[in-house]
Design brief:
By secondary structure, this protein is an alpha/beta fold. The chain is built from 17 helices and twelve strands. The strands form three sheets. A seven-stranded mixed sheet has the order 6-5-4-1-2-3-12, sandwiched between helices.
Amino acid sequence: MLPLADLVVIDLTVARAGPTAVRQLADWGADVIRIEPPDTSIRGQLTADFLNLHRNKRALALDLKTEAGRSVLHEIVAQADVLVENMRPRVKRALTFDWETVSALNPRLIMGSISGFGQTGPYAERGGVDQIAQGLSGMMSVTGHPGQGPVRAGAAVSDMAAGLQLAVGILVALHERERTGVGRWVHTSLVESMIGMLDFQAARWTVDREVPPQAGNDHPTLRPMGLYPTADGYLNVAAAWGALWTEFCKAIDRAELLTDSRFASPTDRVDNHDELTEIINAALSSRSTAEWVDVLNAVGVPAGAVNNMAAAFEDVQVQHLGVEASVHHPLRGDIGVVRNAATIEGIDSAIQVPSPVAGQHSRNILEQFGLPAEKIDELVLDGVVTEWAPEGQETDRTPGQ
């Protein structure tokens, strides 16, 4: 039994941020019921992104634009523990899963919501996507090389940040419910989460009213800590202070830097960054990246190569950690997905089942929540519910097993 096996979670999310939050719950055993429209394209559910986002869930195809569909949703909500959504406020009100409605149906329910810019305020009804949030939050202003102009991060960082923040908030609310018996509405937004992820860069403004500039591949406030060319590629090095600086200078055969007044303190090394970089570049160009990784790590100086995605997954440490998990999909066959990054000793977060196709578990889910067979048949006949199951494929799992 996985830790969250006793939880029933309704997944009404789209895009990436909401599914990222739900994935944290699904990976640890929650019985996640993903609700999608009956006309959802199967083709769109076979992409690498979808298959990685929606594993460990069951799928109900339900038309929430109909009164009958919303009635079914309410029956499920009344028995669930958590509902997660990332719709605009007016959409969830129209489809009747806004907080006022669902909390009245189930006072113990925890509702988790992600928006682009907040549930209230002048931007509440705006559509929010990752890059818009990266720009608005200031993230793009500190990414890239000086003078280059704004640059987006190479991953959907605001989506991921919001999803992870919401998952934490949901777990906090569930813990509180153990004492109070009362649910909570937990919500965050892409822009709030992105500013939170900026952390010390944001604090440079909130504390000192300093606008952080772009710093390229160098650390914004420490040197040497950044990317340097080698004989055959590039090397990331972190040797900005204390013994790390001392061991680094010795390892690259530049011990004279230790008595050079230009580089005597961390502040001096920042102030004379250009001269220091020129010296380090010349020293590191004498050996390959792999050689420098071994030499520097041997004396305790953090250093590493810059991998593309294939090389990252082929790295011996990544292989040892088992970051890629395998699962069999009824239409895509055996595929690899990215396992949950957290480890709880003694408990395995398993990739139990692949991402479901919309409607794959419709009948079983409705039976679970007490709908009689004749009512389910009526809903299917009316097109409110659709069913799908690949030939010879199980359409359900025992939640949390």
